[in-house]
Amino acid sequence: DDDDDIPQLSSHTLAALQEFYLEQQQREGMKTSQGFNQYSIGSIEEDWQLSQFWYSDETASCLANEAVVAAGKGGRIACVSAPSVYQKLKEQDGKDFSVYILEYDRRFSVYGEEFIFYDYNHPLNLPENLLPHSFDIVIADPPYLSEECLQKTAETIKYLTKGKILLCTGAIMEEQAAKHLGVKICKFIPKHSRNLANEFRCYVNYASGLN
């Protein structure tokens, strides 16, 4: 019988698969029924293969508010590999600031002209209209805990910022963060929506509300 060669899913696997698809349908249904906000955290799901870990709602709000205050009225904010802060800033639509998101994940291109494709391996491969020292504050969260990643991301940060830097990375990167960006660790401890194995911290080079 030819059917013998066709792999069959076990009843347990099939049930688990059906449950997954049902949950996915329910999530999509909730998005539609709630007048889905494309800027809410979780609207684009984490991709762990890209080393993506979204901040908790409280942390994203805190960092977004800090950025608005630091940028000042009519300020320009750049979010480098920090999409959940970008999303929180967009929820504050109507406030007097502008924001851009520099991100490797092209799913964020749904945000239109504010999305700029960014690969930290090519730190200065940026659009011509992204002028040097044109942002009042740059918030960055390098995707990997390595000095190479931090050093290259630092090139981008220093190109973009007028001076203020808010860096989010592992506590183990404190020495390298000071070396490459002149930033110091804050008292504020950022949290993620899923617990990470590595202790995470914020670093700044200005008098911030995070201390």
UniProtKB/TrEMBL annotation:
Classification via InterPro entries: DNA_methylase_N6_adenine_CS, Efm5/EEF1AKMT1, Mlase_EEF1AKMT1/ZCCHC4, SAM-dependent_MTases_sf
Pfam family, one: N6-adenineMlase
GO molecular function term, any single one: nucleic acid binding
Gene source species: Charadrius vociferus (Killdeer)
Keyword Plastid: no
Signal sequence region: none
Record's protein name: N(6)-adenine-specific DNA methyltransferase 2
Keyword Protease: no
Alphabetical UniProt keywords: Cytoplasm, Methyltransferase, Transferase
BP GO terms, sorted: methylation
Catalyzed reactions per annotation: L-lysyl-[protein] + 3 S-adenosyl-L-methionine = N(6),N(6),N(6)-trimethyl-L-lysyl-[protein] + 3 S-adenosyl-L-homocysteine + 3 H(+)
Ranges in coiled-coil conformation: none
Subcellular location per the Swiss-Prot or TrEMBL entry: Cytoplasm
Annotated Gene Ontology cellular component terms: cytoplasm
